[in-house]
Amino acid sequence: MDELVIFRLGSSEYALAAETVHQILAPRPVTRLPDPPPLVCGLVAWRAQVLPVIALGERLGCADPPIDRCTLVVTEAQGELVALAVDEVLHLVESAAQPLNLEQMLNGR
Amino acid sequence: MGDEADRLARRRVTFVQDARRRLAALSDSLLALERNSADRAALDEARRALHTLKGNAGLVGLEMLAATAHALEDALADTSSPPSPVLLLRGLDVLSAMVASVAEAAGQSGPPIPAIQALGEAPTPTPARPREGVGSDSPRPLRAQPSQIAASVRHLDSLLELVEELRLAHSELAQAPREMLERHLARQRRLLHELHNTVLETRLLPVGRAFDGFERLVRDLAESAGYQASLVIEGAGTEIDRSALDPVRELVVHLLRNALAHGIEPPEEREAAGKPPMGTIQLAARQAGDGVVIEVTDDGHGLDRQRIATQAVALGLCSEEEAATMADANLWTFLAHPGFSTRSGVDRVAGRGIGLNAVRQGVESLRGRLEIESQPGRSTTVRLRLPAMMALEDVVLVRVGAETYAIPEAAVDGARPAGEIADLPTLDLQERLQVPREAPSTAGVVVACRRAAGPVGLLADNVARRETAVIKPLPRRTRRPYLLGAIVTGAGQVVLVLDIEQL
Questions:
Q1: Cα separation of B7 and B15, whole Å?
Q2: ipTM of the complex
């Protein structure tokens, strides 16, 4: 049984393993990139770092949340910290369910 | 129980940090002993390093490592039949590999672990020389012990974060009514600036730490290729940001391999050219301006202008006329072109090639530049010019539509209303950066900038203000050649910093 952070994206709920979640950030201005890689919709500052904001709408088949008004979940993928754009964070549960695999998402699998 | 496992894991991390220093000292002293088996100070140092290593390994339950260190210690203690240097160096390799695997298990992988390069073929062990009179005071420079602490990067990073939060709080305070606060603010600003700089300075380390084991690497590589070469290191005390140490080590290894594979000639060829059979590679580091220069020079056959020009023309990198009149320094840069290095056979005769493209990319990701110099028949120098890594930089913020971008102030000559400057090629930032434009552009100002290719005017809406900040690297996948990085403003907003040279 792992602790999971449950969040909403569009009309569906998804989960991340709680141990990979560093912080949940209130909506804030996101800096646009002129030429972003797939799934990256901008940059935010967190602590002393610049993190990519990841929007999974396209991958999960729903609309991306409005980028300047979405909650950001600071988590890890591909050895780097990223801020995942979500509509809202719902709760923390203990569950044996399979959390979202960000590595695979970003690798396009 | 879990607590105890945790404690052991933490102690092993500490052990690894210490063990790396001991192994570096051991490597140095074994090399000194190899040169002069009567070097008493080196012998003592080697024993001390092994003894400490043995004790510490035992304390964290690494019995095999302790036993290996013990065996080596015994071998050194036997004055009746001193062991061969080759065997001792082999022993060092085994210890290094063991520490590396402990590091990996403790999540502490990475250099600097000295001398773990595989020896192509086993060198025949040289017979041990009889120990000459003990106590001959061979001069051995004392290992410098600068006042340093082994602070963890994580710790320093959180200090830096704290300071940056303070800076943020300061800027919020600055929005409050003025009159009373002015003086307090000025004082606070000065203190913050000092604190920030002090924290940044704690990140500096001597670049020599990245060069551990290089003397042996060069010797071994040369030996396995049937050459003779020695390495001379200068300026090992030059300070560099600790985050640059690992990448610099990798880059320099590339350059050393290059110098050996393509620079230094075989002994007979050298003698025919009137050079000593033993080639020399010089690895020098020094402060230059507010950055650091690291260069690798070999006294081999230099670069062949004709062959490089022919190849550049064949690859369509320049025309024949251009190649004929081009300055050497510009022609050499083609060697770092990706297409250039993949042509097999060319690098060998032309003098260089494989790896230089990778080195150029590595230097650029550190926001530095690669330079190449050569004297035909005599030498080749590859120079890495690295910026002062984490230093504060002054930037000018410009508004473009609803967005803000930063330009390093060093590149800016001034700003004037658009229309007043006629003789300057201009670049419209809105267009170049694809800034969505809700309202029609005012494009009111031209920021005149210097770049290597000549001056350029950047068209923006207006100049917002100056800011002093640390330029931070962008997340890996979002890096682009025309972006130096990003700064975080006092208000916590990320602002992209443009690289004028690459725009």
A1: 12
A2: 0.88
